[in-house]
Write a structure and sequence with these properties.
By secondary structure, the chain is mainly α. The protein has 17 helices and four strands. It binds the ligand Nc1nc2c(c(CN[C@H]3C=C[C@H](O)[C@@H]3O)cn2[C@@H]2O[C@H](COP(=O)(O)O)[C@@H](O)[C@H]2O)c(=O)[nH]1. It is an enzyme of class 3 (hydrolase).
């Protein structure tokens, strides 16, 4: 796993505030520009205005599974969030399964859940997680772990050998499950859901006027305990904290249980948490002209998205979606996406930090819009929230054919996004 301790800062003392502060500082230090003009160009674009409400309301976290208890559903959402990575394997996954990272992880979770409810022991407990094998995960994901290689001694003979990117990904998934299961067992927890419920209860006890106070408690518990949630680094001597999967976990629980009174304790308010910064958010913000990399030469980021500053291309992306042809989508051959720039760990932390901070700035600009300068039907822009903006950016990237073709950057070998 990519967790070289010499490149990692200490855990923060105040989570949400330090995520915001370190991401803003890194964006500035790396000369990545996000101007008010570029933000307003996005907010008032036809693309944003026409699709924001529809797309940001459709969260897709209602699973068609019959959970026997709230505990069971929270456990499911927690392990789903633990495994909410694999973006670096999007293209090979598309080649093999026709689906991207998120849909493959969802399929794996379905498989783990269904196998657990029909077999003896549950794979979703601390003990079960430690027993999972590479072949089990590959079966549940319906992926092939072999690559074809010429036989070492017999010329002309091709043999299948374990290897290739999908094998690497499956190993990362298995290591993450084993390691998390071991930690849970060592602290006497039955499963990840039990741990998360206890953390939420502790968060409830710390509710205060600051909406992020209880989020901080939950994050400190989850991130503090499990290496696979310790999404942080040091870049050019500066600490940077993203915690994408832990923030996503808390928000997923809020989406599912926030408006019901099913839980015997209060869950945090996530309306002001930082966005869940992965590879999609920064890439889309670059393509939509909000993140400007042209001065960011220290790590060569200015060369990574050629064409992103082309005016005609930007106009077209910010306009309405292109007319779709009448051919039904399921009869069209599915073309796998093209791989985007492959980045180092440092480069990807810089871009993820820039996206996280850019989203903070987008919300600030939206809030500061003068009401009398807006037509009434656009007042809603002033009230958009960070998690809604996250969902819009993430989901619009799949909503339009021209956005689906936009390259997302790739970092292999990470369990954080
Ligand atoms: N920022 C942000 N990143 C997100 C999500 C989600 C899941 N979204 C659904 C769940 C709840 C929401 O309400 C959505 O319905 C996945 N990812 C990331 O994308 C990566 C790329 O995946 P793909 O394009 O498939 O290959 C994946 O490794 C994962 O790191 C999100 O919501 N926000």
């Amino acid at each position: 796993m990519n967790l070289n301790s010499s490149l990692r800062p200490p855990l923060p003392t105040s989570y949400v505030a330090e995520v915001r502060k370190t991401c803003a500082a890194l964006r500035n230090a790396q000369k990545i520009d996000v101007t008010d003009a570029a933000i307003k160009r996005l907010l008032f674009s036809s693309s944003f205005l026409k699709s924001f409400k529809r797309i940001s309301a459709n969260h897709g976290l209602n699973f068609p599974l019959n959970f026997p208890s709230i505990h069971s559903e929270i456990n499911f959402l927690s392990i789903l969030s633990l495994l909410n990575f694999a973006s670096g394997y999007r293209v090979p996954l598309h080649h093999q399964t026709g689906r991207g990272a998120w849909d493959n992880i969802r399929a794996l979770m379905f498989g783990l859940y269904i196998t657990s409810s029909t077999s003896q022991g549950s794979l979703l407990t601390a003990k079960g997680m430690q027993t999972i094998t590479v072949h089990q995960v590959a079966d549940l994901m319906s992926v092939n772990l072999h690559v074809e290689k010429p036989h070492s001694e017999i010329p002309g003979l091709i043999v299948g050998k374990l290897g290739g990117p999908i094998f690497d990904l499956v190993k990362l998934i298995v290591t993450t499950l084993h390691e998390t299961g071991e930690v849970l067992e060592s602290i006497g927890e039955l499963d990840l859901g039990s741990f998360v419920i206890k953390s939420l209860k502790e968060g409830d006890a710390k509710q205060s006027a600051d909406p992020n106070a209880s989020v901080d408690v939950v994050l400190s518990k989850i991130v503090g305990a499990f290496p696979a949630f310790q999404d942080m680094a040091i870049v050019d001597g500066q600490p940077v904290y993203c915690f994408k999967k832990a923030l996503f976990l808390v928000h997923a629980i809020v989406i599912r249980f926030g408006s019901s009174n099913k839980l015997p304790f209060q869950i945090p308010d996530t309306s002001q948490v930082p966005v869940f910064s992965d590879n999609v958010l920064p890439s889309i913000l670059v393509h939509l002209g909000v993140i400007d990399l042209s001065r960011s030469t220290a790590h060569g980021l200015h060369t990574k998205f050629p064409g992103a500053t082309d005016g005609a291309r930007l106009d077209s992306l910010l306009g309405l979606p292109p007319q779709v042809s009448n051919t039904p989508t399921d009869t069209k051959p599915k073309i796998p996406p093209k791989e985007g720039p492959i980045l180092t760990k440092e480069q990807s932390y810089i871009l993820r930090a820039a996206a996280l901070d850019a989203c903070e700035r987008i919300i600030e600009v939206a809030r500061s819009l003068a009401e009398d300068g807006l037509p009434m039907e656009q007042y809603w822009i002033k009230n958009i929230t960070l998690p809604e903006l996250d969902l819009w950016l993430w989901a619009v990237a799949k909503d339009r054919t021209d956005y689906r073709e936009l390259e997302r950057f790739v970092e292999k070998d990470t369990v954080f996004f």
